[in-house]
C-alpha cells in the first residue's frame, strides 16, 4: 500500500546496481581519481557538455509557458540528447567506426529509459589500444562531463576485460546484458554484447542461486512496494529491478518473462505495469529535483496530478496494482527458470516427474499444481476452486500455464453455485495463510474477479486510516486467514470465514461500507447457494462487524441498556454473537500491529458474556427421521450399501445399513475413507437392532467405487478380517503425495509452507446434557441405574479417516453412539454425537474429560504459532 520514511539512492540505474567500476583491477583506469581533490578544468573542455546540462534544465522547467513533456516523451528526449552529445563528442575525440574505440551505454541510457536525474553509466571500450592513447581518449570523454557536474559511472575496458568482470561480478553482468552501442566501432560493441550474453547463458546454472539471493536481499532491505506507505519504486519487491531481472532470465532462455498474463487481467499485463511504475518514477525525479527512488507522501498528490491519475489514494492504488502484477510475474518467472535450468551429469538421467492426483481433474507435476490430462475446463466451472484448494492444502504453487488455460476456457459458475463449489471455496478459505498465494495468483490472472465480481471495487484500494497495514482486498484475505484459526470457537465455521472474506467489501463505494456490504453479502450469499437463514446471518455479520468493538470501547459496559442494545441489534441470536466476537478479533489482528490486545480483548469478552446471559439457551441439533425404505431394510437385517447421485457433478449419497455391533460407525466410515470418499456430512441412527448411516461423500478423484465393493469391504470389517484403521494409517504413511511439501523458509528463516496436516484452529470438544440419568425420553422417571446420555460436539480440522478414528475411540471406552450428525464445512468438521455412557459410571465429569482427551489424540494438532519480526506470535503474544 504505497505511501513511511523517505530516503535517497545514490547508486546507478542499472538492473542490479552499477554496471561499471572505475577502480577494477581487470584493466587500466587512465582517468584520474575524482575524489583526490579539486582540479583545474582543462582548457580543452568544450561548452557542449554545459549545453547538455542547460538543455536538460530547460526540458525540466515548467514555468516558462512551454508545453510540458509527458513522462515517456521526457525519457526519450533525454536519451536523444545524450546520444547526440556522446556521438558528437565521440567523433570529435576520434571515437569513430574502425577506430578501435566504442562508447557503450548501460543502465538507464542503455535501456533507453533515462530519467531526469539518473547517472550516466558509460563504458569506453577499446581494442587493446596503446595505454597513452586510451588515457587521452578517456580524459577527453570523461572530463567535460565531470566539469559540467553530470553524475557519471564509468569504466574503461577491452572486451576480454569486460567479460572477465562480468564473469566475476553479478551486478556488472546484469548491467552489461542491457548494453547498447552509442558511438565508435560497432563491431567491438557487438562482440562485447554477444560475448556477455553467451557467457550468461552458459553460466546461468551456477549463477542462478546468486541471482535469487541478491534479489531476496534487496527485497528484505526495501520491502514490498504494494504494501509500503512510501515504497522504493526501483528496488522494492514488485519494482523496476524485478522486471529487469526477468529480462536477464529471458536472455538466458529460461523464461519468457511475461507470466502468461492476459491484457484484461488486473494490472493489464507485465509491460503495462512496468511502464506505469517507470512513469511514476520519472515524475518523482522531475518533482523532487534529485535521483529519489522512494515515493514520499508529500509528493504523491503532485505526481498523481501530473500523470492524470488522481489524488494520492488513486496513485497508491495504481502502484499497488502494478507492483502486485510484477511480483506475481517474478514469482512465476523464477519458478519457471528454476525448473528450466539445464541438467548436468547424473541429473540428466533422472526420470520425468510423475503426475500425482490431488483432486478431481487436478494433479501435482514437477512441484506445481496442474490440470489432469482428462480435465476439460470448458465443461467444469468448479475446476478453478479445486485447483486453488489443492494449492492451499499442499502448499504447492499453481502452474502459470494452468492459470492461463483456466482464464481462457473456464466458464462462470451457474447461480446458485453447486454445493461442491461452495465446499471447495470453504476448503480454500480454511487453510489459513496457505490461501494467500493461490488467491493472489487467481486475482492477478482475473479468475478471482470471475468468482467474486464485487472484488474489483476493493482490489488494491488503499485504506484511508494509516493504522491499516494492507490494501482493503489484502486485508480481507488476511482477516480470513486469522478467522480460519478460530473456526473451532464457533458452531458455524463456514459462515465465519465467509463473513471475514466479505466484511469490508462495501468499501470504496461512497457510502457506509457496513450497510453497502450487508447488501452485497446478501447478493453473494444467494449466489453461493446458502440457505436463506444463513444468507441472513452472513448479511448481519457484515452489517454489524463493528458493533462489538465500537460498543466495548465507547460505551459503559456496566449499564444494562448497553447490553440490551447489542442483544436487540442482533435479534437475540447467539450464533451471530459468537461469529461477531471471532470476526472482531480476526479483523483487529489483520488491521495492524497493536490493534488487538489484552485491553480490547477483555472489553469485548466482557460484553459478549453479558449478552449471553440475556439471551436464551441454544437448541441441540437432532438428526432427520428415517425414511420408510430405510426402516424396512433395518428391520429385514443384513448388510446393505447403496450409492446414488445427488444431481451435482461430484457429490454422492452413500447409505449403509448393518446389524448393530461395537465400532460399526468406525468401520463404515473407514471403508469410505479407504476408497477415497471424503465425508462431507453424515447422519447416524439406530433402528430395530440395526444401524442406518447416511453419508454425503465426494470422491477424491474420479468416480466413486461400486456399491458392491463397499459392501464386501464392510462385511470383512464387521467380520474382523479387515482392520480399517490400520489400513488408513498405512496408506497415509506410504502415500507418494505428501500432505504438503517439505518445509520451506523465507529469507528471514520463517516457514512459508507448513504441512496442511496441522489444523489451523485448535480442536475443541464441547459437552451438552440431554437429560439427567434416570429419565426416559418422555421425561418420566426411569431406572436410577440407567446410563447417562450426553451430547458431545467435536470441532476440529478434517483429516483422512477422522470420523472412523473418533468412533473407534468412543467404542474403545465402552460408549454407545445413539445418533450422530457429521458436518464438514470446508476444512473444519463439526461432529455431534449423542452418547450413552457406560452403566455405573462413577464420575460423569471425569468420564467426559477422559473421553475428550482420548478424542483429541486422533485429531490434527494446531499449527505452531508464526513469529513476527518483533518476536511475538501472530496474535501479538511474546514467544519464548
TrEMBL record:
InterPro entries per record: ACT-like_dom_sf, ACT_dom, HD/PDEase_dom, HD_domain, NT_sf, PII_UdlTrfase/GS_AdlTrfase, UTase/UR
Chain segments carrying region Disordered: 1-52, 860-880
GO molecular function: [protein-PII] uridylyltransferase activity; phosphoric diester hydrolase activity
HD domain residues: 472-586
EC number: 2.7.7.59, 3.1.4.-
Annotated keywords: Hydrolase, Magnesium, Multifunctional enzyme, Nucleotidyltransferase, Repeat, Transferase
One Gene Ontology biological process: regulation of nitrogen utilization
Region feature (Uridylyltransferase): 1-357
Catalytic activity: [protein-PII]-L-tyrosine + UTP = [protein-PII]-uridylyl-L-tyrosine + diphosphate; [protein-PII]-uridylyl-L-tyrosine + H2O = [protein-PII]-L-tyrosine + UMP + H(+)
Cofactor: Mg(2+)
HAMAP family per the UniProt record, alphabetical: PII_uridylyl_transf (MF_00277)
Domain comment in the entry: Has four distinct domains: an N-terminal nucleotidyltransferase (NT) domain responsible for UTase activity, a central HD domain that encodes UR activity, and two C-terminal ACT domains that seem to have a role in glutamine sensing.
Function: Modifies, by uridylylation and deuridylylation, the PII regulatory proteins (GlnB and homologs), in response to the nitrogen status of the cell that GlnD senses through the glutamine level. Under low glutamine levels, catalyzes the conversion of the PII proteins and UTP to PII-UMP and PPi, while under higher glutamine levels, GlnD hydrolyzes PII-UMP to PII and UMP (deuridylylation). Thus, controls uridylylation state and activity of the PII proteins, and plays an important role in the regulation of nitrogen metabolism.
Family: Belongs to the GlnD family.
Name of the featured protein: Bifunctional uridylyltransferase/uridylyl-removing enzyme
Organism lineage: Bacteria, Bacillati, Actinomycetota, Actinomycetes, Mycobacteriales
Amino acid at each position: 500500500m504505497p505511501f513511511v520514511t523517505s530516503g535517497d539512492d545514490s547508486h546507478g540505474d542499472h538492473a542490479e546496481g552499477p554496471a561499471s567500476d572505475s577502480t577494477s583491477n581487470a584493466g587500466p583506469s587512465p582517468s584520474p581519481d575524482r575524489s583526490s581533490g579539486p582540479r583545474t578544468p582543462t582548457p580543452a573542455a568544450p561548452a557542449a557538455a554545459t549545453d547538455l546540462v542547460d538543455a536538460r534544465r530547460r526540458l525540466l522547467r515548467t514555468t516558462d509557458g512551454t508545453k510540458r513533456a509527458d513522462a515517456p516523451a521526457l525519457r526519450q528526449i533525454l536519451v536523444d540528447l545524450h546520444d547526440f552529445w556522446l556521438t558528437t563528442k565521440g567523433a570529435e575525440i576520434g571515437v569513430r567506426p574502425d577506430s578501435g574505440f566504442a562508447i557503450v551505454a548501460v543502465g538507464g541510457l542503455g535501456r533507453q529509459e533515462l530519467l531526469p536525474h539518473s547517472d550516466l553509466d558509460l563504458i569506453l571500450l577499446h581494442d587493446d589500444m596503446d595505454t597513452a592513447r586510451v588515457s587521452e581518449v578517456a580524459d577527453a570523454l570523461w572530463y567535460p562531463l565531470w566539469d559540467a557536474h553530470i553524475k557519471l559511472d564509468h569504466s574503461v575496458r577491452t572486451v576480454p576485460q569486460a567479460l572477465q568482470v562480468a564473469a566475476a561480478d553479478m551486478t556488472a553482468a546484469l548491467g552489461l546484458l542491457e548494453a547498447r552501442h552509442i558511438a565508435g566501432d560497432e563491431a567491438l560493441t557487438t562482440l562485447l554484447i554477444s560475448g556477455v550474453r553467451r557467457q550468461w547463458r552458459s553460466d546461468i546454472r551456477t549463477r542462478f542461486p546468486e541471482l535469487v539471493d541478491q534479489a531476496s536481499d534487496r527485497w528484505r532491505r526495501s520491502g514490498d512496494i504494494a504494501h509500503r506507505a512510501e515504497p522504493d519504486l526501483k528496488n522494492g519487491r514488485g519494482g523496476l529491478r524485478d522486471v529487469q531481472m526477468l529480462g536477464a532470465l529471458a536472455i538466458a532462455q529460461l523464461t519468457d518473462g511475461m507470466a502468461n498474463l492476459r491484457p484484461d487481467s488486473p494490472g493489464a499485463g507485465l509491460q503495462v505495469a512496468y511502464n506505469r511504475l517507470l512513469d511514476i518514477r520519472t515524475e518523482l525525479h522531475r518533482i523532487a529535483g534529485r535521483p529519489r527512488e522512494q515515493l514520499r507522501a508529500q509528493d504523491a498528490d503532485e505526481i498523481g496530478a501530473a500523470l492524470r491519475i488522481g489524488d494520492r489514494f488513486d496513485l497508491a492504488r495504481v502502484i499497488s496494482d502494478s507492483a502486485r502484477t510484477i511480483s506475481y510475474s517474478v514469482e512465476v518467472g523464477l519458478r519457471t527458470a528454476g525448473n528450466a535450468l539445464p541438467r548436468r551429469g547424473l541429473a540428466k538421467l533422472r526420470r520425468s516427474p510423475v503426475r500425482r492426483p490431488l483432486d478431481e481433474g487436478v494433479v501435482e507435476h514437477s512441484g506445481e499444481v496442474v490440470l489432469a490430462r482428462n480435465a476439460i475446463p470448458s465443461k467444469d466451472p468448479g475446476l478453478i476452486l479445486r485447483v486453488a484448494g489443492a494449492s492451499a492444502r499442499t502448499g504447492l504453487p499453481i502452474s502459470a500455464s494452468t492459470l492461463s488455460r483456466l482464464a481462457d476456457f473456464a466458464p462462470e459458475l451457474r447461480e446458485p453455485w453447486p454445493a461442491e463449489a461452495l465446499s471447495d471455496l470453504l476448503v480454500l478459505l480454511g487453510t489459513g495463510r496457505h490461501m494467500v498465494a493461490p488467491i493472489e495468483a487467481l486475482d492477478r490472472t482475473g479468475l478471482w474477479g470471475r468468482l467474486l465480481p464485487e472484488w474489483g471495487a476493493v482490489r488494491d484500494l488503499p485504506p484511508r486510516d494509516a493504522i491499516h497495514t494492507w490494501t482493503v482486498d489484502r486485508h480481507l484475505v488476511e482477516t480470513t486467514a486469522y478467522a480460519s484459526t478460530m473456526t473451532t470457537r464457533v458452531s458455524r465455521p463456514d459462515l465465519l470465514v465467509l463473513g471475514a472474506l466479505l466484511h469490508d467489501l462495501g468499501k470504496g463505494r461512497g457510502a457506509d461500507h457496513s450497510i453497502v456490504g450487508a447488501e452485497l453479502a446478501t447478493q453473494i450469499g444467494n449466489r453461493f447457494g446458502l440457505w436463506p437463514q444463513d444468507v441472513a446471518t452472513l448479511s448481519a455479520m457484515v452489517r454489524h462487524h463493528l458493533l462489538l468493538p465500537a460498543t466495548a470501547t465507547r460505551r459503559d459496559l456496566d449499564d444494562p441498556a448497553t447490553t440490551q442494545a447489542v442483544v436487540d441489534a442482533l435479534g437475540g441470536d447467539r450464533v451471530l454473537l459468537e461469529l461477531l466476537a471471532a470476526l472482531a478479533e480476526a479483523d483487529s489482528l489483520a488491521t495492524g500491529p497493536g490493534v488487538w490486545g489484552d485491553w480490547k480483548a477483555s472489553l469485548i469478552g466482557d460484553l459478549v458474556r453479558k449478552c449471553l446471559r440475556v439471551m436464551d439457551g441454544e437448541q441441540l441439533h437432532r438428526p432427520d427421521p428415517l425414511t420408510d425404505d430405510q426402516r424396512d431394510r433395518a428391520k429385514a437385517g443384513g448388510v446393505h450399501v447403496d450409492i446414488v447421485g445427488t444431481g451435482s457433478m461430484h457429490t454422492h449419497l452413500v447409505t449403509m445399513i448393518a446389524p448393530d455391533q461395537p465400532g460399526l460407525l468406525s468401520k463404515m466410515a473407514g471403508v469410505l475413507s479407504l476408497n477415497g470418499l471424503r465425508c462431507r456430512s453424515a447422519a447416524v441412527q439406530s433402528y430395530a437392532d440395526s444401524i442406518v448411516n447416511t453419508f454425503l461423500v465426494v470422491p477424491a478423484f474420479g468416480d466413486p467405487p461400486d456399491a458392491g465393493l463397499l459392501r464386501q469391504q464392510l462385511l470383512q470389517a464387521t467380520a474382523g478380517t479387515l482392520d480399517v484403521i490400520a489400513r488408513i494409517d498405512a496408506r497415509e504413511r506410504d502415500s507418494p503425495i505428501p500432505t504438503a511439501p517439505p518445509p520451506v523458509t523465507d529469507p528471514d528463516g520463517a516457514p512459508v509452507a507448513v504441512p496442511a496436516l496441522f489444523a489451523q484452529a485448535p480442536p475443541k470438544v464441547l459437552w451438552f446434557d440431554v437429560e439427567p440419568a434416570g429419565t426416559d425420553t418422555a421425561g418420566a422417571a426411569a431406572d436410577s441405574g440407567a446410563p447417562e446420555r450426553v451430547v458431545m460436539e467435536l470441532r476440529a480440522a478434517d483429516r483422512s479417516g477422522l470420523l472412523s478414528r473418533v468412533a473407534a475411540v468412543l467404542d474403545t471406552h465402552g460408549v454407545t453412539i445413539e445418533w450422530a450428525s457429521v458436518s464438514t464445512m470446508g476444512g473444519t468438521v463439526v461432529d455431534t454425537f449423542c452418547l450413552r455412557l457406560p452403566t455405573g459410571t462413577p464420575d460423569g465429569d471425569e468420564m467426559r474429560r477422559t473421553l475428550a482427551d482420548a478424542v483429541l489424540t486422533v485429531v490434527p494438532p494446531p499449527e505452531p504459532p508464526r513469529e513476527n519480526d518483533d518476536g511475538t506470535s501472530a496474535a501479538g503474544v511474546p514467544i519464548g
